[in-house]
Amino acid sequence: MKLTREIKTALLVLSALLLFIWGYSFLKGKDLFSSYENYYVVYENVEGLSASAPVTLNGLSIGKVSGIAINREGKLVVEVQVKTDFPISKSSILEVYEPGFIGGKQIALVPNLEDSNLAKNEDTLQSAVRLGMIAKAGGQLAPVQQKVENTLVSADSLLNNFNTLLDAKNKENLSVAIAELTQTMKTLNSASKTLDKMLTVNQQNIDGMMSNLNKTSENFAQISDDLTQADLGKVVQNLESTLANVNKMMADMESGKGTLGKLMKDETMYNNLSDASKELELLLQDVRLNPTRYVNISVFGKKNKPYVAPQENE
């Protein structure tokens, strides 16, 4: 069958229309001849994500961004096309990340392997944004920058206060203080030289003193050795035994045992000793006053005088 001109024209127009539709879809990131699963995800900020950006799974490209739109709430709705046999659950996360310094933003699929509820075509998945290296560095440098700025402000304030403090009078006082400090250093230098000279002159005496000190130290060491060699334990034991005996004797005296204890505690014995002492005193007094009464040598038979007891008050 011979095609007429009208049929050829219609076929050509239809082919051009199909080619235009395919090209337009390709430019928008859609492939009409491949079976993709479309998913949606909502972001507060896409961090510079553009259409046709890759969608990766563990670094493997499995799709691309097919469109980005803004909803009524001002949030960004991103449509992605994914072609993979890997099971994607509804709790999977589509995370915007930066693969490097040069490349643009991409979307990484973070699957949840524990969720068996698979996502369907045109489902909405969870969103996340991973900070890039530059953003992380900026976030870490921001506190440092703030601290540096605060330090600079404090330093500037300190310098202003220092300039205010150093008026004409204070500058003069500071100059005087520096001059006096210089003079003090000169005096200390002179004293140091004098001390060096004294040490040089008396070096022999100092050596003698050190020799005597060493000898004294040796003597102390010898005494320490002698004390170490001595049986101090036995001496201490004997001393403890002696003290124990003394304590026992004192306890016996306190309890009235023994002669000394009875003398201290027995009042009758004390009175007898006192009376005996008094009578001995009277006897000695009588012997002194009347010796002939006790030693009588009579040649002519002289009679003794009668005995008269001595008085206590004589």
Provide structural commentary.
- This protein is α/β, with parallel strands linked by helices and 314 residues long.
- It has three domains: 34-135, no CATH class; 142-227, no CATH class; 231-292, no CATH class.
- The protein contains seven helices and seven strands.
- The protein has a seven-stranded mixed barrel.
- The protein is elongated.
Task: Write the SSE topology.
Layout: H1 5-27, E1 37-43, E2 54-57, E3 60-70, E4 76-82, E5 93-97, E6 106-110, E7 124-129, H2 133-165, H3 168-201, H4 203-229, H5 232-255, H6 258-265, H7 267-289
Parallel strand pairs: 1-7, 2-6, 5-7
Antiparallel strand pairs: 1-4, 2-3, 3-4, 5-6
The helix-and-strand class reads alpha/beta
Question: Helix count?
Answer: 7
Helix content: 40-55%
Distance between the termini: 193 Å
Placed side by side, the strands forming the largest sheet appear as: 1-4-3-2-6-5-7
What oligomeric state do these chains adopt?
single chain
Beta fraction of the residues? 5-15%
Shape: elongated
List segments where confidence is low: pLDDT < 50 over at least 5 consecutive residues: none
Integer average pLDDT: 79
Number of domains: 3
Question: Which features does this protein show?
Answer:
single chain, 314 residues, alpha/beta, 7-stranded mixed β-barrel, 7 helices, 7 strands, elongated
Give a quick rundown of the structure:
This protein has helices spanning 5-27, 133-165, 168-201, 203-229, 232-255, 258-265, 267-289; strands spanning 37-43, 54-57, 60-70, 76-82, 93-97, 106-110, 124-129. With 314 residues, it is α/β, with parallel strands linked by helices.
